[in-house]
Design goal:
Blueprint (H helix, E strand, L loop, with lengths): L8 E5 L1 H5 L9 H13 L4 E7 L11 H7 L7 E6 L2 H10 L3 E7 L2 H8 L3 H18 L2 E7 L12 H12 L5 E6 L6 H14 L4 E6 L6 H11 L2 E5 L19 H10 L8 H15 L7 H4 L5
Parallel strand pairs: 1-2, 1-8, 2-3, 3-4, 4-5, 5-6, 6-7, 7-8
């Protein structure tokens, strides 16, 4: 899985969670389970399947426990649940997730709108969740939202994000994810934040979450890979967004990311044809168009 630079990447499929949460149409539990089954069949090994949030606020994520109960359990596939607070963690642990992804927001205004607390309280929540997750033996990721810019506050200084990284790292996460929640980041920011993460959290796995809102997501992903071993989030078909962030459109697409990684010398283990077929299927279920380009252009060589 090495590139020319020697870095290694693996893909985290977030379509069943981030890909669906901002779509107009809410899918049934059975359809969401089938989506995840298709992703597994395509070779994806880490899949963010559900979000343990209030279904009144995010109705697309209702029935998280039912989804988890219906999933096929395989030794080499990890199912990830996103949590925002300790109640969400209670639900995630009871549902038997393999990993928890905890969101810590880097701007007070977005944190208040998204989680009902400021950044300081969000960090305190993270610390309590991290302690409990570690005691439960569950792999834990801290995702730092709006690390590249906030839809309400504007620029988020890198120094602020790195300060939050440092605080998060003190609680011993297995992985820290840096998220461009609204798709405003550019490679220069990736390099600056990546250097900060390496400095304040040595030995902690790196993960990156990019949106392609302004057509910079794939450049950012390849820049992150150039910095060293990492995980890269993507969504089948390029679906996704945040219901609490205006104009936060599309994640980078799994099929397009796979093409770039494979052509760059990274063996992903992902079946590109199955991913494209799944994107077409889920697009019909959502009554929403695929934004990925590979399904239109086709692979190369053919």
């Amino acid at each position: 899985m090495a590139t020319a630079t020697g870095s290694v990447a693996h893909v985290v499929e977030v379509g069943p969670r981030d890909g669906l949460q901002n779509e107009r149409k809410a899918l049934s539990v059975d359809t969401r389970v089938e989506f995840i089954r298709r992703a597994v069949s395509a070779g994806l090994k880490r899949i963010e399947t559900v979000s343990f949030v209030n279904p009144a606020r995010v109705p697309q994520m209702a029935g998280a426990e039912e989804v988890m109960a219906a999933l096929p359990r395989l030794d080499d596939v990890n199912y990830i649940g996103l949590v925002l607070n300790e109640r969400g963690l209670d639900r995630a642990l009871a549902a038997g997730v393999d990993e928890v992804n905890v969101v810590v927001v880097c701007s007070d205004e977005f944190s208040l709108r998204n989680q009902g607390c400021d950044v300081a309280e969000g960090l305190a929540r993270w610390e309590r969740i991290a302690e409990r997750s570690r005691a439960a033996g569950v792999f834990t990721t801290a995702t730092l939202a709006v690390s590249f810019g906030c839809p309400f506050s504007g620029e988020v200084p890198a120094s602020r994000v790195i300060e939050i990284m440092d605080r998060v790292a003190q609680s011993g996460p297995d992985e820290i994810a840096i998220a461009d929640t609204i798709g405003v980041g550019v490679p220069a920011q990736v390099r600056e934040l990546g250097a900060g993460l390496a400095r304040v959290a040595p030995g902690v796995a790196h993960r990156w979450h990019f949106h392609n809102t302004r057509n910079t997501g794939y450049a950012n992903a390849l820049t992150a890979l150039d910095l060293g071993d990492c995980a890269l989030d993507s969504s089948i078909g390029g679906f996704g967004g945040c219901p609490f962030a205006p104009a936060a459109t599309g994640n980078i697409a799994t099929e397009d990311l796979r093409y770039q990684l494979e052509r760059s010398g990274v063996t992903t283990g992902i079946d590109g044809t199955k991913v494209v077929d799944t994107a077409t299927w889920i697009s019909a279920e959502l009554e929403s168009p695929v934004t990925a380009l590979l399904g239109r252009a086709g692979p190369f060589p053919g």
